[in-house]
């Protein structure tokens, strides 16, 4: 039926319906505001998209946007939510399905704090944000945990279940982040957390676990990497041409930072806060803690078995990248021409962290102020991420083309 | 100085780190030609908002020029996706950069040449073509369309050639203006103090009549207030005639600035 043939009442209803759609969608325009590429850590985005697709197996697109509040966030795919909402308002449901059928990729909105746009090492927190997309999967698959929780006899089972799920939502994301990005994820979480209260009590509506609890579990999940660094006495000697006396500085800087994180994580003050502030806190968090081995097993053997980032297997590649950063060269490739290879995103981020810790400890870079030196390192890291990604994507096509 | 040919360039690309010519990443070995290395177009551009300025004057105070520059330029980033493109219109100047990051050791200098096939379309890629020994960074390209039709540019195209020469002796990189850029850099000409010297007005001696000065304390107060102004020299205060005289070097302070400083110190300047 043509809209012109509608009665006045039908037209009015239609206008009201359109108005509701516009108002709802209009509210979401904030997601694309200021989302111009130049306002984002642009060189990371395509690379992260590809990495995310590989990690989750989900065809996905990121809308990355800076926000003024100091926070990282991810809004999960909203295409389905829109589809259902517009279906409810539309005359022709099939038309809506046909229109939305064209969206073959899930769209995630990733927000990062505007102030940290170029802080590449901190952007390791994006691993956690990616992890949130898997948290939901875990929670959906483990509804039986509610019975387990009930057996522990919480005073308020409904609230306890909510707090339990919220806690796991964060913890699964943390463990995915550290699984994907290794120590870089822990370092970034700690850097983020020490500016806050490590023992902040879980509170409504998000009930985030205390940072100390989260960092302890992330660090425990990377015990192999930590042991490797300890046992191997950091085989991260820089290449032989680097000044010999600088190697211990780098090793010591990483070891000191890890030690600091370990000591903070080992304090149990978070448990005191949990017990004091939540009626069923002890019960809930013991249940969460008991779930950790299962979550790790799920991530490591079922969900992301191919994507565990291991320092042991990357140890021979990273010194070269750190050395390049020291020389103010983007660490986009391993080795020397003509046998260079594109560097892995995770190696680049780890090298960037190691270089940062080394630089802070040694006050290296007499040419630049501390702030400027870090800013240069961040930009070189961003450039490296882009260059290696472009190389991976285009090199084979170029070779095919010239053949 | 002699231009390095392909074989020598390859040797430099795999030399020990301190003597190495870094060009990273080289996507195809074919980029290394007989007498240079092809460089690709990067994906960041600085375009100009001509409407916001009547003129760009690098001789202004650096802070003022910087503010002008921030208003004048807009950074555009085009994702490295197949089909992403940038259109350069006739007569338009855009600042772009190479995709490759280049690091020259202290005994090599380089220049950027337009590739002749692009030049024949009316496109020039570089005005300032010389790259000093020790430079590290992507190379800023001044892209200009001299033709009469728009030219479509795609990030990733090999658009320029790096021609490398060996220097006689080593020359550490001196400039602090363009350190380790990873994208196009706008001109920082305003950091050149010598430019301002040429733009300054000539020195000028001025004298102002001031009321309210009654003692040596007043003389010292006024003298200090005026002397503290930047670009003021030879301040003299004559209590008897009530005259304050000084020389304006043209650098900064004006006659009005001097009058305001005296008034702020609590004395009346007689105008007229």
List the helices and strands and how they pair.
The complex is a heterodimer of chains A (403) and B (272).
Chain A: H1 8-27, H2 42-56, E1 60-67, E2 73-75, H3 79-89, H4 93-100, E3 106-113, H5 126-141, H6 145-151, H7 157-181, H8 183-193, H9 211-221, H10 223-231, H11 247-266, H12 269-277, H13 281-303, H14 311-314, H15 318-326, E4 333-334, E5 341-342, H16 345-362, H17 370-402
Parallel strand pairs in A: 1-3
Antiparallel strand pairs in A: 2-3, 4-5
Chain B: E1 2-3, H1 6-13, E2 22-24, E3 37-40, E4 44-48, H2 62-72, E5 73-77, E6 86-88, E7 93-103, E8 108-114, H3 116-119, E9 123-124, E10 130-131, E11 136-145, E12 151-153, E13 158-166, H4 193-199, E14 204-211, H5 216-227, E15 232-238, E16 243-248, H6 255-264, E17 268-270
Can you tell me about this structure?
The complex is a heterodimer of chains A (403) and B (272). Chain A is mainly α. Chain A has 3 domains: 1-117, no CATH class; 129-230 and 237-306, no CATH class; 316-402, no CATH class. Chain A contains 17 helices and 5 strands. Chain A has helices at residues 8-27, 42-56, 79-89, 93-100, 126-141, 145-151, 157-181, 183-193, 211-221, 223-231, 247-266, 269-277, 281-303, 311-314, 318-326, 345-362, 370-402, and strands spanning 60-67, 73-75, 106-113, 333-334, 341-342. In chain A, the strands form 2 sheets. Chain A has a 3-stranded mixed beta sheet with strand order 1-3-2, covered by helices on one side. Chain A has a two-stranded antiparallel sheet with strand order 4-5. Mean pLDDT of chain A is 85; it is low at 239-243. With 272 residues, chain B is an alpha+beta fold. Chain B is 19% helix and 33% strand. Chain B has helices at residues 6-13, 62-72, 116-119, 193-199, 216-227, 255-264, and strands spanning 2-3, 22-24, 37-40, 44-48, 73-77, 86-88, 93-103, 108-114, 123-124, 130-131, 136-145, 151-153, 158-166, 204-211, 232-238, 243-248, 268-270. In chain B, strands 1, 3, 8, 10 and 13 form a 5-stranded antiparallel beta sheet that branches. The radius of gyration of chain B is 27 Å and the shape is elongated. The mean pLDDT of chain B is 88. Chain A binds chain B through residues 37-38, 42, 45-46, 239, 241, 323, 327-330, 332-333, 336-338, 340, 342, 367-368, 376, 379-380, 382-383, 386-391, 393-395, 398-399, 402, and chain B through 10, 13-14, 16-18, 20, 22-30, 75-81, 99, 101, 103, 136, 138, 156, 179-180, 182.
């Amino acid at each position: 039926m043509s809209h012109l043939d509608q009665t006045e009442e039908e037209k009015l209803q239609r206008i009201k319906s359109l108005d509701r759609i516009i108002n709802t969608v209009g509210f979401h325009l904030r997601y694309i505001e200021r989302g111009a590429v130049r306002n984002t850590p642009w060189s990371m985005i395509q690379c992260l998209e590809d990495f995310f697709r590989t990690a989750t197996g989900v065809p996905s697109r990121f809308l990355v946007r800076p926000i003024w509040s100091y926070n990282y966030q991810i809004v999960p795919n909203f295409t389905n939510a829109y589809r259902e909402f517009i279906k409810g308002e539309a005359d022709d449901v099939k038309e809506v399905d046909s229109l939305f059928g064209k969206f073959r990729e899930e769209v995630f909105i990733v927000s990062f704090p505007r102030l940290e746009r170029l802080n590449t090492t901190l952007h390791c927190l994006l691993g956690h944000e990616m992890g949130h997309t898997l948290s939901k999967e875990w929670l959906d698959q483990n509804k039986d945990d509610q019975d387990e929780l009930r057996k522990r006899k919480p005073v308020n089972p409904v609230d306890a279940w909510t707090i339990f799920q919220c806690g796991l939502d964060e913890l699964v994301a943390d463990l995915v982040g550290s699984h994907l990005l290794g120590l870089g994820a822990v370092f970034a979480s700690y850097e983020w957390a020490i500016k806050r209260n490590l023992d902040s009590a879980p509170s409504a509506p998000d009930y985030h676990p205390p940072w100390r609890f989260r960092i302890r579990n992330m660090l425990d999940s990377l015990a192999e990497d930590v042991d490797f660094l300890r046992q191997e006495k950091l085989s991260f000697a820089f290449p032989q041409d680097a000044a010999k006396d600088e190697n211990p500085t780098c090793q010591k800087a990483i070891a000191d930072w890890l030690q600091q994180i370990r000591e903070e994580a080992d304090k149990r003050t978070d448990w005191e806060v949990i017990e004091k502030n939540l009626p069923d806190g002890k019960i809930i968090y013991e249940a969460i803690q008991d779930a950790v081995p299962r979550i790790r097993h799920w991530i490591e053997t079922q969900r992301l078995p191919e994507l565990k980032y291991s320092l042991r297997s990357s140890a021979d590649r990273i010194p070269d990248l750190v050395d390049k950063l020291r020389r103010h060269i983007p660490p986009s490739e391993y080795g020397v021409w003509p046998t260079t290879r594109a560097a892995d995103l995770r190696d680049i981020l780890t090298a960037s962290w190691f270089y940062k810790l080394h630089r802070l400890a040694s006050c290296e870079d007499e040419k630049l102020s501390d702030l400027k030196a870090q800013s240069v390192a961040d930009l070189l890291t961003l450039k490296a991420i882009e260059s290696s990604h472009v190389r991976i994507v285009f090199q084979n096509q170029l070779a095919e083309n010239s053949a | 100085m002699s231009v390095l040919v392909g074989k020598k360039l390859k040797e430099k690309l795999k030399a020990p780190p301190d003597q190495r010519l870094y060009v990273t990443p080289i996507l195809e070995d074919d980029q290394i030609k007989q007498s240079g290395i092809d460089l690709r177009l990067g994906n960041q551009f600085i375009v100009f908002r001509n409407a916001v300025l009547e003129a760009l004057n690098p001789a202004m105070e650096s802070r003022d020029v910087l503010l002008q520059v921030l208003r004048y330029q807009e950074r555009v980033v085009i994702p490295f996706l197949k089909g992403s493109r940038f259109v350069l219109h006739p007569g338009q100047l855009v600042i772009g950069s190479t995709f490759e990051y280049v690091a020259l050791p202290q005994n090599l200098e380089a220049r950027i040449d337009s590739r002749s096939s692009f030049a024949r379309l009316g496109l020039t890629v570089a005005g300032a073509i010389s790259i000093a020994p020790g430079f590290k960074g992507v190379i800023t390209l001044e892209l200009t369309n001299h033709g009469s039709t728009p030219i479509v540019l795609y990030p990733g195209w090999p658009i320029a050639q790096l021609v490398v020469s060996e220097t006689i002796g080593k020359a550490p990189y001196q400039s602090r203006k363009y350190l380790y850029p990873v994208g196009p850099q706008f001109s920082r000409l305003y950091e050149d103090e010598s430019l301002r010297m040429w733009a300054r007005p000539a020195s000028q001696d001025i004298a102002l009549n001031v009321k309210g000065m009654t003692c040596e304390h007043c003389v010292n107060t006024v003298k200090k207030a005026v002397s503290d102004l930047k670009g003021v020299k030879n301040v003299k205060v004559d209590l008897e005639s009530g005259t304050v005289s000084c020389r304006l070097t043209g650098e900064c302070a004006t006659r009005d600035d001097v009058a305001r400083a005296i008034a702020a110190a609590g004395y009346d300047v007689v105008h007229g």
